[in-house]
Amino acid sequence: MLPKVSINKNGDGAGCATPKDPTIIVVDVDDVASEPTRVVGNTVLEGDLELKEGAKAIGIYATPDTIDAGYDQEGETDARGFKDKVGFDHPGDSTDINNFAEGGANKGFIILVKECDGTANGKTKMYGQKCSPLFMTSSPTNNKEGNKRHFDFNQSMSTKFVPGEYTGTMPELAPTSEAAAANPETE
Question: For the stretch 61-88, what's the b/e string if a residue is b when 16 or more beta carbons lie within 10 angstroms of its beta carbon?
Answer without folding.
Answer: ebeeebbebebeeeeeeeeebbbbbbbb
